[in-house]
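HOLO CASE FILE
Compound: 2-acetamido-2-deoxy-beta-D-glucopyranose
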Amino acid sequence: MFIYWIQLIVCLLSYINIIHAYKVGTGIADITGPCAQIMFMGYAELGQTGEGIRQRIWARAYIVADDQDDTKRIVFVNTETQSMGDIVKKRVIQSLQKQYGKSLYTEQNVMLSSTHSHSGPGGYLQQALYELSVLGWIEETTQPMVQGIVQAIARAHDSVQPGKLHLAVDELLDTNINRSGASYLMNPLEERKQYKYNVDKNMTVLGFHSSAGEPLGLISWFAVHGVSVNNTNRLINGDNKGYAAYVTDRKINPHGTLSGKGKFVAAFAQSNEGDVSPNTLGSFCTGTTISCDGSKNDKCPTGSSCNGRGPGWKTSDYESNRIIGQQQSDKALELYEKQENQLNGIIDSRSKLFDISKMVINGTKKLCRPAMGYAFAAGTTDGPALTTLGFYQNMTHGTLGWDIVKDILRTPTKEQTDCQQPKPILLDTGEITIPNPWQPTILEIQLFRLGDVFIASTPSELTTMSGRRLRRAIKSRLNSRGIQVQDVIYSGPANGYASYCATYEEYQKQRYEGASTPYGPHTLSAYIETFNELVDAMANGSPASSVPLPDYTNQAFNLSPPKIADFKPITHQFGDIVTDVVVKPNGYSSGQTVSASFVAGNPRNNLMLDKTYLTVERYMPSSTSTKTNTNADSSWVVIRTDNDWDTRFNWKRNQVLLGRSTAIIEWDVDDTVEAGTYRLGYFGHHQSILKKRVTAHHGYSTPFEVQ
Ligand SMILES: *[C@@H]1O[C@H](CO)[C@@H](O)[C@H](O)[C@H]1NC(C)=O
Ligand SMILES: *[C@@H]1O[C@H](CO)[C@@H](O)[C@H](O)[C@H]1NC(C)=O
Ligand SMILES: *[C@@H]1O[C@H](CO)[C@@H](O)[C@H](O)[C@H]1NC(C)=O
Ligand SMILES: *[C@@H]1O[C@H](CO)[C@@H](O)[C@H](O)[C@H]1NC(C)=O
Ligand SMILES: *[C@@H]1O[C@H](CO)[C@@H](O)[C@H](O)[C@H]1NC(C)=O
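Model generated. Tokens follow.
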């Protein structure tokens, strides 16, 4: 009997040792900044300011803690942004430490990753080049972003419970394509031969379940630029990954709240997307069938530019966005449902802030102060920039006219020109410091460990081959330290923004991605070398050393339009109808759009975080639902908000009568809508000229029928 007990205890102990259980938590919060008058971050398209909301943008947070010692935890946050601000992370950590003490959440174990969407308001990056592209450092964008990220983490914190993690990988085809094939071909043939595709087609999904098997959430990683929605769009949305997250959340939480905020939280995170486009049909000169790649020899006829085409381009870029998003959602759920490869083992994390511009590789290969090449100004086939001004992709020489112009800004030193070879320097960002440094030199890299799965991040957009080399280098360093590796996932851009990172060979071509690799040809080698230190620190159980992060926000500028008082026509109140819905005798049917417009205030008066500027409401007199609007007749049930894909909140300022504005609410009726009586609602705020008081207002359309 005694022997039996000993055996049982030994058996139990070894079981505990092998299956290392986790505690997990998930949370989501709204980070939608000002949806009007502020420039979108990504395309650097002057005049591309917000005019409303197609979908809100969100932060989704995941906590994984060791079951035995739950102070050992990691926090992964996916934000629907173009990139992350180093100052955003600093403020998030400060706020978390105020709430939870100094040791539970630190820069070491919190990773803020970005989906690289190009359709959200800018102003959260502190370096002048990025500020210039959106006209400033904008607290109005940054503060709700910080608050929302902290709130998502707090919600994840409050939901921490015993749970399980699974990891699954599979190919997803027809959802991404190379956009700089000529650069990719510069990489050695031997290396290219190891891979089936010229972009990464693997999607990796980390699945979260409670210990009882209840679905809690997933994180998917797949490399594809967030540029399905093009640079003519003026409505905030999360691009293809935002759409993927929205449809996935809604599918699993059918009875969750209307914005998709149920218990299940799905994040679609970014990976090595530097040279990867969602425009899967390839690139063509607009209005023609001539294919092109944006280089000089591929010049498009006058009046036409080289643009990528998504799968739904004949309908609209939104249709392409929907398709690319839906495909990611479908694959992620397929992988999630497999529940294979249950993870177990140690939770660990390290981050390191280092000055990349001061590094020297192997004693001779110097990293450079940042600079951008000529092709940076050409943009890409996903958003051509100054192509009519003589910029094109793969420029290894400057042009006389622009050489004169750029030298007025700053003539690069000989040291800088040599260091950046063969890049012709257009913007010597590392040698201009007015009003503050133009690009960062202090960068943060980070490494998470969940058993034998690792998540690595940098603030750069890694090209396909850069990502592969980095993952391989991290894996081989871990192996050399006796650590088993199932997978190294690359997540980013994260924790800051440092433009692109092309391989040494791709850099020689100086297409857009190489021209936008700021620290010279050895940028990737510098990352790999610094990750080696991080792996060693993790293997040794020692801390990684860091340098302090500079904060220039007190010397920042903001040239975006100030918010002024709101005015209305004398005969109207705020919230009054301007143009009512057209009431059709037979009602609306699938494929038709209902719209109404209202006397509005500036949406910047109140961002309505976790709320909505619009509603679509259904008349249900017998309903006992609690989802009703509190300040209205409880027979009206909200069925759509401004976060829904089939609604649009458009805001227009009247250009002639300053301060007057209109909100236009639109709803696309489709065949999933039940027959019944509906109305549109608008919810806004106006600011009076005296005392700057902000007051709420709202209005409803006349009810209408859907057949
Ligand atoms: C990108 O890849 C596609 C499919 O593999 C190929 O047909 C195309 O030529 C490549 N594009 C460039 C610019 O090399
Ligand atoms: C894609 O995933 C498969 C299966 O895990 C793996 O063998 C392959 O190396 C991965 N490809 C890349 C490019 O990472
Ligand atoms: C950008 O999107 C708009 C709206 O879908 C479309 O009309 C326009 O043709 C697109 N531009 C290009 C270059 O594809
Ligand atoms: C530095 O030296 C190592 C070892 O010889 C080599 O593998 C690596 O490619 C070198 N890095 C660069 C940038 O030359
Ligand atoms: C640019 O690329 C094209 C084809 O991709 C090539 O023919 C041309 O020589 C390149 N130009 C330069 C300056 O590298």
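CASE NOTES: The two ends are 75 Å apart (CA to CA). The first helix runs from residue 2 to 18.
CLOSED: yes
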